Amino acid sequence: MPRRWLFADQLGPHFLDDRHQPVLLIESKAVFRRRAYHRQKAHLVLSALRHRAAELGDQARYLRAETYAEALREVREPVEVHHPTSRRALALVRRLDGVTVLPPKGFITSLEDFADWADDRRGALRLDAFYRFARQRHGVLVEGEEPVGGRWSLDTENRQPPPKGTARLAVPAPPMPREDDIDAEVRADLDRWEREGIRFVGRDGPRRFPATTKEARARLRHFLTHRLPEFGPYEDAMLAGDPWMAHSMLSAAFNLGLLDPMAAVRGAEQAYRSGRAPLASAEGFVRQILGWRDFVWNLYWYFGPSWRQNNELAARRRVPDWFRDLDADAVTARCLADVLAGVRDHGWVHHIPRLMVLGNYALQRGWRPAELVDWFHHSFVDGYDWVMTANVIGMSQYADLGRMTTKPYVSGGAYVNRMSDYCGDCRYDPKQRLGEDACPFTAGYWAFLARNRHRIPRNARMARTLAQLDRLTDVDAVVAQEEHRATGPP
Ligand code: SF4
């Protein structure tokens, strides 16, 4: 039986055909030299890889080398590997002699099924249509061909602001991993690498995300039992004092390959069918895994390498150093300061701070989309090229003019004010677009529209917004004000 090479994002038991199969694991230091990773992400990846080696014992050969190619020169037997998750790694494994590349694993809808579905669509590809296809194809939350409860999406029930007067959601905290000797060894190695000149961003801290399948399954069980009911209604809400809200905090575990996504989808379905979670919450979670995660994975391959280079809004500003280096203390705007501090301290914030605070701010300022893909990839514990290309190019930066979304995800301070408790204690006023108290999101929103009005496709969803822009009498002053503060921390 050939030795199965597992990349550091292919670590769960479902990546092996046989539980006794010989395994190859490689730790490449060059990966961490290329870009400044978040310190906690580097820790998580190395911890997960080394924990898998410890679980497998003599079954695994563990090689530490500068590069993958260098490590493989020591391997004299046939090796096979599942289709890696980045183009760079795929090109590498295809080039190597003696390595057989198997189909991808760790996702639910295959590349072939997705391509068949996408080839049949005219125009843009939309999550809603794919999600419906995937529910039917895999028989999830359906009765016959119809959705359980009569609607495919219960999103309208899942967009509630946080409960008023509450600093934290009333849900049990997720179980945190207990660090062990392997984590201590990883921490000592990363300290040494830093002294040798490898640069990281963000703060070190206790490991908060699962590094083993056992830890990931424990967090999933806890989530399905205790947190899923509140996940749905508040999945888009933000509270300054509650970074986790009722999110599963399993994205890193899925993306390390520790959890089989279909098992999690079936778990959520079962939680609904057994009466432990409302349909809207179960459906919201299923949409994230079977829908969004598989959608963006497949689009990464379906749209091809040029997608990542899209910059149709001609966004030319470099991502500034204060943002790149997670210097939250330099920021006055309360929402942005808190979210950037969350990235600095945990390497994770949930999808709305990513999209509607970080991404929204960058979009308004015209920062280069490809640089943002890199930033999200390296700064988040769950970041990978495949997931961040879609999230940034297709979604948050609208850099492809809507190949997967109907309009840019740009908004003023009113959205943050409605969906969070940030604005009350902020130095800025979400209603102001001009002057000392002007909210950078509100001013940035109008400046963005004014700058891009001729580039944004005029569909029905944008027509009303652009008509509002036409009626503003102070828009030139707002644009000038925002030009002035386009690169410094707000
Ligand atoms: Fe953020 Fe503006 Fe609200 Fe301040 S006023 S927290 S900058 S949205």
UniProtKB/TrEMBL annotation:
Q: Which InterPro entries does UniProt cross-reference here? A: Crypto/Photolyase_FAD-like_sf (IPR036134), PhrB-like (IPR007357), Rossmann-like_a/b/a_fold (IPR014729), UV-DNA_repair_photolyase (IPR052551)
Keywords for this protein: Lyase
User: A GO molecular function for this record?
Assistant: lyase activity
Name the PANTHER family on file.
SLR1343 PROTEIN
Lineage of source species: Bacteria, Bacillati, Actinomycetota, Actinomycetes, Micromonosporales
Q: Which domain of life is it from?
A: Bacteria
Query: Which Gene3D superfamilies does UniProt cross-reference here?
Result: 1.25.40.80, Deoxyribodipyrimidine photolyase-related, DNA Cyclobutane Dipyrimidine Photolyase, subunit A, domain 3, HUPs
Pfam families hit by this protein = DPRP (PF04244)
Native organism is Micromonospora pallida
Q: Under what name is this protein listed?
A: Deoxyribodipyrimidine photolyase-related protein
